[in-house]
Amino acid sequence: MKIDILSRDESLNIISDPSFRTTWDQLARQTSHCTVIQEYGFVASWYLSYLELFDPMMVLGYDTSGTIIGVLPLAVAHDSGTLSLAGENQAEYHGWVCPKAHEEHFLIQALITIKKELHPGMWQWGWLPPGVDTDWLHAKLLHKNGIYINTIALDSPLHNLQHPEKLEKIIKHKSNKIKINRLKRTGELRIERIRDRNRAEELIETIIDQYNFRHLSLYDNIPFKSDTHKKEWHLKQIELMPEYTHFTVLWHNDELLASNFGYCTDEKVLLGLVSYDPVKGAYSPGVVFLIKLMEFIKEEGFGYLDLTPGGDSYKERYANEHVALLKPSFSFNRYQWMKSYLASRVRRFLKQYLTAKDIATIKNRVKKNLFKLLRRKVSEHTKGLPSYFIYTKETRQVSPPYALPPLKKQQYRDLLLYEGYREDLTCKEIAYRSMKKFERGDRLYTMVADDELTASFWLAKSGKKHWHPDL
Fold first, then answer.
1. How much of the chain, in percent, has pLDDT values that exceed 70?
2. Per-residue pLDDT, 354
3. What's the whole-number mean pLDDT along residues 326-345?
4. Which of 21, 99, 278, 397 is the most buried (most CB within 10 A)?
5. Are 328 and 150 in contact (CB under 8 A)?
6. Of 69, 18, 15, 35, which is closest to residue 272 (Cα–Cα)?
7. pLDDT for position 332
8. CA 437 to CA 440: how far, in whole Å?
9. Under a CB-based contact definition with an 8 Å cutoff, are residues 443 and 459 in contact?
10. Following DSSP, what letter does each residue of 349-400 receive, concatenated?
């Protein structure tokens, strides 16, 4: 088998060739494990959206007649030169397209060629697609050519809609019924599937704000701010692969309550970019949306909701099956392999002997100590200040007389403008505690001037006393 590694320009030329797309589509239909993420539309849209950060690099396999029988789409990061598969960490699964009869030979020869021409020291893949044949990972020919492999296994959550018992139990759960009925009493709940770019552009900014706010509260990260290409990439996917994009929005009257920008195959929908309105936290919009999404895709004729790997605890609550996944890492010299092997053994050891109770105890102890320290520091900095100037920059004069900006209500987006003016109050803490306050029904008031968060404060619906209004 002949293996070619195409340069950036060669890769861009071939993906713009209609005949190559036809070939890719034909190979995808012959690849039993192929997911949407290995389809032409996903890869091409990612390449075109991230040209400023990654160089496309296509690995092609040819049979004896010169016909393309295998495609492995790669990318090289501009800043670090790191080799990855197309989609990098934004792809739920990493894979290839190739008929099963040629698959093992193609992948082995591709790895040998990559080692000879690119000389990577270590190459970490993402999760392989569900159901993929992994026998080739143990091929003696790889070891003979100095390619060593370590793997990580995972049981990934899946909801099988063909067994309705789990979904019925979720819907009938007293707490979920109360939440859905509370929303229905104040308006209509309906799901819309978005199928064209123009409609998506009307909604994308709201979805970005919701998604950013949730991620800031959980992971101290604002994805669409740190990745300015992310927005255009999602819009481009609807253009290039509308049949495989499953973009759904849950409306409460005319308000966008929650959404999922995912993907779909003939029988399965993949959970993707999930967002919800944090102001409606008291109604548990994320829970309501997942229930409505499962009902909706079942009516559409899909059999499964792939909750996808990622470690989010809520996914396990909605799973009634699991699928075995494997994540390989390739070491192209013995030293890197030993380093990777030892690291994987340490992870397995900790997972085996450090129980969930131990982890919870450690977390609670750290949280308690940090809470005491933070409370003391905030008290020192805010003594004598009116509560509604809690986020004001220290350099700004706030003593009377002063002109106040307009007071706004329930505008969670304003909190995204906070940029850590105070050392004792991080952006993540603001977002995380705000999510909790929204969930219990507290009301947010904000002031914004010159695109800066001037002040914010809360009114507590619960009537409870809080030790400080911003925490």
1. 83
2. 52
3. 71
4. 278
5. yes
6. 35
7. 86
8. 5
9. yes
10. HHHHHS-HHHHHHHHHHHHHHHHHHHHHHHHHHHTTS-GGGTT--TTS--SS
